[in-house]
Amino acid sequence: MAPAALFEDAPAKLNLFLHVVGRRDDSYHLLESLVAFTDIGDRLSATVRADGALSLTVSGPFGALLTESPENLVLRAARSLRSRLGVSAGAALHLEKNLPVASGIGGGSADAAAALRLLNRLWEGGLKEGDLAGMGLALGADVPVCIASHVALMRGVGEVLEPAALPAPFGVLLVNPLQPVSTPRVFAGFRRTGCFAARAAHDWTVEPDPHRWLHHLAAAGNSLQAPAETLLPEIATILSVLGELPECLLARMSGSGATCFALFPDAPAAASAARDFGARRPDCWVAAGRLRG
Ligand SMILES: C[C@@](CO)(OP(=O)(O)O)[C@H](O)COP(=O)(O)OP(=O)(O)OC[C@H]1O[C@@H](n2ccc(N)nc2=O)[C@H](O)[C@@H]1O
Ligand SMILES: Nc1ncnc2c1ncn2[C@@H]1O[C@H](COP(=O)(O)OP(=O)(O)O)[C@@H](O)[C@H]1O
């Protein structure tokens, strides 16, 4: 009988707001970001390999854009956990790649975090979330927040996390123009034209009234949106269409782009908006769901 597979979801991350608040000595930018997760994502499975090898296969709508090479973040995470645990165990991993790659919703980071959680279970590593988050930072700045995949206020380059709360189970629509924007070029654009934002005065760690929460969120922004729009004007076009959809509460770009999101009162409203947007723009990747609480 084949060994039983374990599964982990790798939910898309959204930077509900993202402010660049400074710069480190190594020139990485210091961020302040309210990060939330969706029920849209990749899915990872693993079974034990008796021969001790690590292997990866990839399927799904965006699978062809990724190689199954050792550099895939899933295999990098697997090697790093194996060396941390000092085990000789192997695993056959399979990634269903549903999220566009390098698109500001942290698909690679979510996959790496899912691999750490999954293999910690498969190999009975016994590491706590905090241990996995510490290991994750070496794989990518967004990996620590993706370990818990719970709404959080993220600071530093991603290593400082404070649990936060959502006031309502908002519906969410994600749209990606299927054109890449380079994260280093977006940060370089910010350096030329952007200004550091002031640190947040609002306390995002408590769960306030939804209307007030949305008011504070609308007053925040994404410091990387303007430089990304300069590189890819299509982002501004998408945001203006999203903003006009019935019941849209807020439309913004996530991360360094190019994925844009819109919040809705609930998942059915987001699904209806997805049909509307998809009919107008069949050239875009469109996905609807809701924010995870
Ligand atoms: C912008 C964010 C926000 O969540 O999300 P994504 O757009 O990747 O989803 C992340 O901070 C992305 O962090 P990370 O995943 O490390 O970005 P990478 O693609 O590795 O970084 C590429 C390059 O962008 C610049 N960079 C990145 C992060 C940062 N805080 N400051 C920077 O200056 C650096 O020049 C770096 O070499
Ligand atoms: N499993 C993976 N999924 C997505 N990207 C991966 C993966 N493994 C390696 N990468 C590489 O990581 C980079 C960042 O991808 P991703 O996390 O999707 O970006 P973003 O955070 O902007 O959404 C890409 O250049 C991609 O080639």
TrEMBL record:
Segments forming domain GHMP kinase C-terminal: 213-277
Reaction equation(s) it catalyzes: 4-CDP-2-C-methyl-D-erythritol + ATP = 4-CDP-2-C-methyl-D-erythritol 2-phosphate + ADP + H(+)
Residues holding ATP: P100, V101, A102, S103, G104, I105, G106, G107, G108, S109, A110
EC number: 2.7.1.148
Pfam families for the chain: GHMP_kinases_C, GHMP_kinases_N
Family: Belongs to the GHMP kinase family. IspE subfamily.
Descriptive protein name: 4-diphosphocytidyl-2-C-methyl-D-erythritol kinase
